[in-house]
Amino acid sequence: MLNAAIVGLGWWGKILTQTLAASDKITVVKLADVDAEGGAAFSAEHGIDFTSDFAAVLADDDVQAVILATPHSLHEEQIIAAAGAGKHIFCEKPFCLNRASALRAMAAIEAAGVQIAIGHERRFEPPVMDAMALARDGKLGALMHIEANFSHDIFAVLDDTNWRLKTDESPAGGLTATLIHLMDLSISLFGQPDRVLASVECHGDVVKNGDTLTAQVKFENGRTASLNAFTHTPFFSRLAIFGSEGWLEVRDKAHVQAPEGWFYTACFKDGKAETVEYEVATPVLSNLECFADAIAGNGTYPNTPEQIVQNVSLLEAIVKSTATEEIVKIAR
Known about the structure:
Layout: E1 2-7, H1 11-20, E2 26-32, H2 36-46, E3 49-51, H3 54-59, E4 65-68, H4 75-84, E5 88-91, H5 99-112, E6 116-118, H6 126-136, E7 143-151, H7 175-190, E8 193-201, E9 212-219, E10 224-230, E11 236-243, E12 246-252, E13 262-268, E14 274-278, H8 283-296, H9 305-324, E15 328-329
Parallel strand pairs: 1-2, 1-4, 2-3, 4-5, 5-6, 7-10
Antiparallel strand pairs: 7-11, 8-9, 8-15, 9-10, 11-12, 12-13, 13-14
Helix pairs in contact: 4-5, 5-9, 7-9
């Protein structure tokens, strides 16, 4: 059993705490948040020790791993400190906000020899796993293109002062909230991204950092992806993979915070699309427990350090492209 501390008790940190209550591989032994009063109340409700001091988390010998659900700009400093304390690290996405920051954080992780994991639970959705496996096995023929959309209006009700709506923490609309998951899936299948043209607009006049984000990505191998994230429309999630011999589509019924299952459609050369329904699963828990398994030596964590840095490099290029309205080459 892995003893972990969750750092950051906002919307998602609380969901992670509740999710891990069902785990037989990870025990949450400490919770931490800068909001001493609110954090202490939530922790008391769940019977877990609380601190408002991150340094106290790192000094606790009972804590083997930290799960960071903190504002994005804090990740580099917290990752470096946690690695220096010998703690394994699960970091919510994005890993960092720019490539230089990601490289410094990853260097600290590699120097400490600790396990890193990232909050890209989309990789652990059963239909997505099946779609990726089928694409990799060549059943779609030559892979051509990914078309994906991950949108919701969860943030439309937030106060303007919330860090999730600030451009320094969450630039380019839904980039760090949802599009980054689609970037991760695209990188996992197509590899190194080469260039991107992106646009962010605000149509609903509610989500001030932008509610309409589109990105056209070209990869080194010539494959392409069209990725979209809207943050002022009801929940919608679609992943489609196109190949010379067929295509696949995965549609989520509901947001991963309360999953309801998926629809999986496949169409091959005969032109007959067939849809099957996938039952509810728990990809957030699966991701966290895969992290614990990797620490225990029971398997390899799927997101490689290289892919994590590639994702941040693409993120940085998207931000630049939305600002300049030009195609941006992705650093490597």
